[in-house]
Amino acid sequence: MENCELLEKCVFFNDKMGNMPSTASVIKMRYCREDSSGCARYLVCKALGRENVPADLFPNQEDRARQLIASAR
């Protein structure tokens, strides 16, 4: 699978977890490079717009993403 279409401007991919490089690497591989469809940040961005993606939302917080989307609708 190819990289996430939002990768270049993704705050998480480009700025987060500098102090945890091995953890960041695993998360980025899973959600940014393999399958973005389950990424919480991707889900919120697509449903509500990039401006509504919380800065502290991690890619693996899909349940939180679904709650944010449901609350906004």
Describe the protein:
With 73 residues, this protein is mostly helical. The protein has one domain. It has helices spanning 11-15, 21-34, 40-48, 62-72. Helix 3 (40-48) runs parallel beside helix 4 (62-72). The chain is globular. The chain starts with 10 loop residues before the first helix and ends with a helix. 27% of the residues are buried.
Task: Please outline the helices and strands.
Layout: H1 11-15, H2 21-34, H3 40-48, H4 62-72
Helix pairs in contact: 3-4
Tags for this model:
73 residues; mainly alpha
Structural class: mainly alpha
Helical region count? 4
Shape verdict? globular
Largest sheet: none
Instruction: Evaluate the radius of gyration.
Output: 12 Å
Record field, number of beta strands = 0
Please, how many domains? 1
First CA to last CA: what distance? 31 Å
Helical percent range?
40-55%
**Average of the residue pLDDT scores:** 88
Strand content: under 5%
TL;DR of this structure?
This protein is mainly α.
